[in-house]
Amino acid sequence: MIIVNKFSSVIAALALLSASPAALAIDGISFEVGDSDSSNSSVNAYRVGAQWDWNKKLIEAGNWHLGGFWEANLGYWDNRSNGRTANELFDIGFTPVFRLQQNSITGLSPYAELGVGIHFLSRTSVSTQRQFGSSFQFGDHIGAGLRFGDRGRYDIGYRYQHLSNLGIKQPNQGINFHQLRLQYHF
After folding, report:
1. Verdict on whether the full-model pTM lies above 0.70
2. Which of 56, 106, 169, 170 is the most buried (most CB within 10 A)?
3. What is the C-alpha to C-alpha distance for residues 96 and 43, in angstroms, rounded to an integer?
């Protein structure tokens, strides 16, 4: 219940975004939940996102193609780390995501994806031993999943994500997350 209350501001922001005229172009919405596997951190991350499909097949071979989408998300981090510097963090991210998937989405259709984007964090550390150096972070992920349902409207996937500032400012200890992601395609 506490998480729902804390996360309500993120959900409200997404609702406002979806009510705007620009949101008419939104092709999907997503929800992610993740857990950090980095040392000196114990963080659960929750994110809501919106996706805009590129509607392009960059490479095509047989019934498969490489395409992608833009993804914007808002996140809340529940920080339970020992020696924590804050109980919570918020993040805003924007990522181009490349996805290898089938042209014809029927039944259970697998996919693989890769993304590299930017994130802005509300704090620069989760603990005295896990510091990020700056609020600006690069976020990269690799993932896989399945699309299913009528016209592939539903999507369940796994992502492994790493955030760090690429050495722009020290310390640059970064953080990693295992994430479960659910998406609905319009």
Report:
1. yes
2. 169
3. 25
